[in-house]
Every structure is written in C-alpha cells, then in structure tokens.
Amino acid sequence: MKLSCLVLLLLCAPVFAARPFQRTLTSPDGRLALRVVFDTRITFSVTHAGQPLVQPSAISLTLDDKRLGINSVVRQSRIRTVRDSIVAPVALKRRVVPDQYTELTVECRGNYSLIFRAYNDGVAYRFRTSFPDSIIVRSEEARFEFADDPTVYYPAVQPRADADRFHTSFEELYQVQPLSQVPDTALAFSPVLVAASNKPRVVITESDLEEYPGMFLAKNGTALTGVFAPFPLAERMTQGEFPQAIVTRRADYIARTTGRRVFPWRVLVIGSDRDLPSSDLVYRLGAPNRLTDVSWIRPGQCTDEWITNINLFNVSFRAGINTATYKFYIDFAKRVGFERILLDAGWSDYLDLFKITPGLDMDEVARYARAQGIGLSMWTLASTLDRQLEPALVQFQRWGVDFIMTDFMDRDDQLMVRFYTRIAEACAKSRIMIMFHGAYKPAGFDRTYPHAITREGVLGSEYNIWSHKATPEHDVLLPFIRMVSGPMDYEPGLLENATKDQFRPIAGKVMSQGTRCHQLAMFLVYDSPLPIFSGNPSQALLEPRFMEFLGGFPTTYDETRILDAQLGDYIVTARRKGQDWYIAGMTDWTARDLTLRLDFLPMGEYEAVRCADGPNADRNPVDYQFSTQTVRPRDSLPVHLAPGGGFVVRLRRK
C-alpha cells in the first residue's frame, strides 16, 4: 500500500552511439554516490561522504546468443527521485517504511536496460530485458571490487559427501578474514559483510529473487563475485530419515526464463554498526505485496517441542507425540500468552501427511485447540508437501491450522526457487501462513508474500543439540549480517543455560551458551513476526513471572531503533508497539556495563520493568533478576551484562 509519492522524472535525449556514458546518482541525504559507466564494459562504483567504498565493478549478463553489458550502446536514460512510503502488512521493524531513493534507468540497444538506485542505506542494480521469446541465461557477472584488503564476514558452504557444492542448508558460522586470505575455493552464501577500516560496513545480498537462482559469492582477486547454481536437469531422492531431492545432473546454463522480465536486485546495504540491524532496504526492494487480503495473517509467539525432544516432567502422562502431550502444550501456550503451538517433525509419517502417528488424535487436538483459542501449526517435509500439496492444505484447513513449516529444501537453484513461489501461492489461497526451513535467506520474499512470515536460513538453537557452534559471538553477529536480508527463525528460549566451560551438547537435555537473559533478549533483538519458543514447558511453568513477561512481548512493531551496537560484540535494540517501548541487549562472551539513554522517549513518566542478568550469572547463567522503577526521558538506565549476557526492559507510560 502506498501513502504518497513525489516523483521527479528527468529524461535524457537519446544518445545511441555515444560512449562512454557516465552518470552519478546520489542518495537522498547526499552521502552515498553511485557512479555508473557504460563503455566497453558496464561498471559501477560507490563512495560514501567522498570516501571510496566499492571500486569500479563489472556487470554483465550472458544469454544464449548475446552478452548484455559488453560494448553497450545507450539509447536513452532517465533519472527520477522517489519520496514514498510502504505500509507493511506485517510490521517487522516498522509499520510505515520510508521508501526514498534516486533511480537511474539506462536503456540499451538490444532490448535490455539496467536500473540503478541510491538509497540513504545502500545501493542496488538490476537488469531488465524485453525479448519477445524465452531466453537462456548462461551466466551472470556480478562483481564487487574492494581496495585496501577489507575484512570479510562470510558463511562458507561446507561440502556434502552426497551432493554438489550448491547443496546447503544455509546454516553456517561466519568466518572472519581479510579478503586477501579468503581461500579462492571458498563458496559463501549471501549475505556477506565487508568491513574496511574507518569506513561504513557493506553487506552484499540480493532482493526480489524469483524464477532465478540465488547468488553465492566467491573471491576473485580483490573482488567478491557472484556464483549461481546451474539449472537442475536430473534429481534423485536421498535415503534416510528426511529424504530430499539431490541434483545429479546440471545444465550448462543457470536459468531458462521469459524474455520480458526484471532480474533480481544486486544489493549493497551500507551503514554503521547501528544502521545495519535496522535497515529494511532488502524489504523495500522486494516485489510489492501480491495478496489482496491480509486480514487473516496473524503474527504471534509459538511453541516447539523438537529441540527438547518433548522431555517433559511434572506431568501425569507419558510425554511424547500423543494427544495428551499436545493438549499440555496448548494449555501451556494459553497460560503464558502464546498464540499457537507447533507440532514438529513426527506428528505424521514424514512421507505421508495423512498417516498420523499412532497415539495422536488430530481431530481431538484440533477441537481442544479451538476451544482454548490457541492456533495449530504443523511441520512438513518439503518433498512430501510438494507431492500432497492440495489435499494436505484441505486437511490442514479442516483442523484449523493457520501456519505450516516446510523443511529440507537445501538449495536455491532456479527449480527450487520456483518451489517457494508455488508453495507460497497455494498456502495463500488456503489462508495458511508458511515458514521455510532448510532455506535460503528471504531476499524480499516477505514483502511479496507477507504470509511467508519468517524463515530459517540461520544457524540457530537446534545446533545446541549436537555442537558448540551457537555461541554468544555468533548470536551477536546475526543482526548485522543475516538479519539484514529479512526475518529469521532462530528459535530462542532455551531455559538450561551454561557458561563456556559448562556447556555440553546433550540431546534431550539441551542447554544454550550464555545467560537466560541472552536467550530472552533474542525475542526482541531478532526480527521474526512468529518467534518460536524452544524451551521446556515443564521448566517454564516453574518460573511464571519470567514466562508471562516473555509471553507479553509483541512480535511486530511500529518503530525500531538501534541504541548502541558494535559488530560482533554487542547490540542494544529499542522497539515501540503503540505507546509501549521494549529495549533489549545482548553481548558476546565479554561482560559489559552499558548506559541506556532514554531521551528517545516522548515526554512523560514510564514504568520500567527490567529482567537482567543476576549477580551470579557469570557462574550460573540461569540467574536473572526483575526490578521495577519509574523513569523519564531525561533519565539513563545503567545495565550490567554478564559474559554471554543480555537484558530486556519494558517501558509503559503511566
């Protein structure tokens, strides 16, 4: 939905044979400059406040019979300035999203053009073609050239024994190296962060990914270059617990597509440590909402039982995948203020969504959930959902399911990208929200399909079951890198908490590294309109004040501000819902003392309820304390964060 638009359109006279063609776009605030040169090659470069950020970087698109971007002949160009806003159906960071930029469109002889945009928080470009017939895209050149050997934060794909290098769950730790030391063999999935000394950060990613493979990145000299999975020609199904389709033969091209289309945006999100976590540039660049009715989309908190392996206690029944257990989860959700529960993997045969696990009466669970006013959500295996899609959605509707998860895609070639659109459109017709696990980053998909409400594509809580990977250092990197590309399903809320030395990965007795309040802060620091609580309800019921505090958190917000942040070290986020404000902070393994300035608050008195690391949290990370005080905008709040710690402050106007 658009609020207002003031557009200035400047048409340049046709230039046809003129070369080189040069234009410089500036961001609305004048700080970013995007310079475009059309000569024998097309290149772009970026400066910030006069400082070079991106050196001249080549752009081209190779089709079956031509290469777009080589010896281009510019026919005409036009520049427009846009001062607009988007009202978000699902308010991830803010309800009203300012959409302000300067845009250059350059039309070239040969039925193609390039579109460039300069925003205050980044730049982007894309190809547009207007061929009458379908086309084959052999390759794309997307080069990002840097000087001065910046530091790169990148998630490298780990090779699988049973598949090629383009198969990944998109769940890896960030490796941190100077660009010169990144191995030439490393393949990273985006987003990737580039940090040069005394310059703004640059996050490389994409948006409006549709009918096209996603962009990986690899080092090439002093540049990072786009790499794209070739089109799948043959697949086989794996054996094992969670079967999935593995590509066994690929084409010598990356996409076969319509000739009249726009291609994905290549995006550079640019800003300081405080800017990146609050940027919604990728969302703005996504294709506009395609749903005519969004009234049925209901964000809210959800439970999950898979990470803790349903290891309940203080109950009168045998816990497991059965009717009594899910009634218990429904009662728990209602007790603490959550909107729904998830029935994770195991409620049915993985290969047949109509073969319900013995001991589970889904009709009774559905009836009970309706009576308690709690929503039902269901896990599905992607290959099974795809095969049984239409009847499964009918069954889900009959049970009153309003949200499903589908899992184990582990690819982003063109064929798999089509799967996301097909599933999202089918779910929209059935008024069912969808979350993709084993998934690539959102890339603006949540703007186009707002019921695709969150997504995995992140190394999150489940890794505590079997590894040491989910550390506080990793946790505080995510807002600056992965979260820049859209909402992420980390699944926080583990209630067994450990120091670095105490932590052990134990299935069924899962703990997290860092403090209880570190887990609590994730619900507010991380963007996800449908966060999933992964803790053990039996433990949670022993701590009613903590759980009711958590259960009262909103999951969508009218406004978001980053009050303080340092890449990979800590972050402090403030969010507003109505007149209430929530401030949350997280740190790495370094203890910190921070001071929260409240001068962003409107005038008045506020009740500040704080849940923060307790005095013994450095030795026993479960330790936390509540406190309440009255504050005003002129006040400041000191807060101590234990190693791996966190805090949350709720501010309500008196």
What does this structure look like?
This protein has 654 residues and is mainly β. It has a domain at 6-285: Beta-galactosidase, Chain A, domain 5 (Distorted Sandwich). 15% of the residues lie in helices and 39% in strands. It contains 11 helices and 42 strands. Strands 1, 7, 8, 9, 10, 12, 13, 15, 16, 22 and 23 form an 11-stranded antiparallel sheet that branches. Strands 2, 3, 4, 5, 6, 11, 14, 17, 18 and 21 form a 10-stranded antiparallel sheet that branches. A hairpin with a 2-residue loop joins β17 and β18. α2 runs parallel beside α3.
Furnish the topology, listing elements before pairings:
Layout: E1 6-11, E2 21-26, E3 32-38, E4 42-48, E5 51-63, E6 67-68, E7 74-87, E8 96-108, E9 112-119, E10 122-130, E11 135-145, E12 151-154, E13 175-178, E14 188-189, E15 192-195, E16 201-207, E17 215-220, E18 223-228, E19 232-237, E20 245-250, E21 255-257, E22 260-262, E23 265-271, H1 281-285, E24 302-303, H2 323-336, E25 340-343, E26 348-349, E27 352-356, H3 362-372, E28 375-381, H4 382-387, H5 389-399, E29 401-407, H6 414-429, E30 433-436, H7 445-448, E31 454-455, H8 472-477, E32 497-498, E33 512-513, H9 516-525, E34 532-533, H10 537-540, H11 544-551, E35 559-566, E36 570-577, E37 580-587, E38 592-597, E39 606-613, E40 624-631, E41 636-641, E42 646-653
Parallel strand pairs: 24-25, 24-34, 25-28, 28-29, 29-30, 30-31, 32-33
Antiparallel strand pairs: 1-7, 2-3, 3-4, 4-5, 5-6, 5-11, 7-8, 8-9, 9-10, 10-22, 10-23, 11-18, 11-21, 12-13, 12-15, 14-17, 15-16, 16-23, 17-18, 19-20, 26-27, 35-36, 36-37, 37-42, 38-41, 39-40, 39-42
